[in-house]
Amino acid sequence: MGTDRTSRLRRWRWPIGILAFLVLAEIFLRTYYGFCDAVLLREDPHYEYIAEPSQDRWRFRHHIRYNSLSMRSEEPDSAAVVLLGCGDSVINGGVLTDQDSLATTLLSDRLSETFKRKVQVLNISAGSWGPDNCTAYLEHTTVPTAKAIVLFVSSHDAHDNMSFKKVVGVKAGFPKEQYRSAIVELVDRYLLPKIWKRNTGLDSDLGIDKHEEAFNPGFTGMKEYAETRGIPFVIFLHAEASEIRSGVYNAQGQEIIRFAREYGIPLVMDLDHGVGTDLLRDKIHPDEGGQRKMAEILFRDIMQRPEQYGLAGPQE
After folding, report:
1. What is the SS3 assignment for 282?
2. Which helix H or strand E contains 245, and what residues bound it?
3. pTM for the whole structure
4. Which domains are present in the chain?
5. What gap in Å lies between CA 197 and CA 166, rounded to an integer?
6. Are residues 134 and 124 in contact, defined by beta-carbon separation less than 8 angstroms?
7. Chain-centroid distance, C-alpha 310
8. What is the mean pLDDT of residues 252-257?
9. What pLDDT band is residue 201 in, cutting at 50, 70 and 90?
10. Can you state the angle between helices 103-115 and 288-304, rounded to 10 degrees?
């Protein structure tokens, strides 16, 4: 009888061990890496897609928040001086950038300290957005009255026009609901695409959904939006890794530069400020050091020309 009991225990040892491992793995993936707590997106008929409003996520050991207007910022403060920062994944930061490490957060804090009053640089962005997405968002959303608009772009945005291809809930980078299991999410969203090289909805080189079309109409749209409201409009041109290595913006970047100069739009180019590829986590996206660099560059420009951003000089 003792031998039979021992035999039965041995037969169950592996199933019990595997079950225990899966339970521990599930708990670890959820609590340590934030699986099953992804940033969710929704479709929009005007600007393709955007993050669902009012999200507070813990993902890959980073804190990610979206306010009630789907901005990656705190709630707008009616007493604050507001600048609108618009762009794509470069300023959005994604889940690999903590909320407190975003260029817009850092800039808000530093400007508030310098000007001795609350300043908010609101972060209106989503992965793969172009200037036309930003313009459409502003035209169809009631946003706080702003002192200025800063459009963060890279060279690829010259032709990254909206296509309204269905991506939300279809491609891995655009989830509309949470996985029920962290292990399933790890396998389905991250491991299998690497094995099968399944399309995640992002260009393999730049991390964007790129379209070779006419010059993005959002540049003109943003200019007209700002002019209609009588506020300054500034373009921040972020260099890709290949441009940093060559020391010059590519042909599409030159189109953006020509547009800004033709219409007298203030242009901040980070290639003029000693950026390096060590500040990028891939071929285009800034790491946390890159976010700090963007905030530093823009802060210096604001302090040199505060009127260009609709601001008076800092209070004593």
Report:
1. coil
2. helix 241-246
3. 0.90
4. 41-309 (3.40.50.1110)
5. 20
6. yes
7. 25
8. 98
9. very low
10. 40
The crossing angle, in degrees rounded to 10, of helices 131-139 and 218-229 is 40
DSSP state of 187: I
Residues making up the chain, counted from first to last: 316
Helix, strand, or coil here: 229? helix
The residues pairing with 57 across neighbouring beta strands, listed in sequence order, are 64
pLDDT tens sequence across 84-125 = 999 999 999 999 999 999 999 999 999 999 999 999 999 999
Residue 297's nearest CA partner among 98, 146, 46, 107 is 107
Tokens found for residue 286? 């800034």
Residue type, 158: A
Closest CA to 291 of 238, 232, 235: 238
105, 112 contact by CB (below 8 A):
no
* H/E element, 56: strand 55-59
* Strand stretches in 135-222, DSSP E: 148-154
Residues with Cβ < 8 Å from 264, sequence gap 6 or more? none
Q: Give me 170's structure tokens.
A: 């279809």
pLDDT-derived band at 200, boundaries 50, 70, 90: very low
> How open is the CA angle 256-259-137, to the nearest 5 degrees?
75
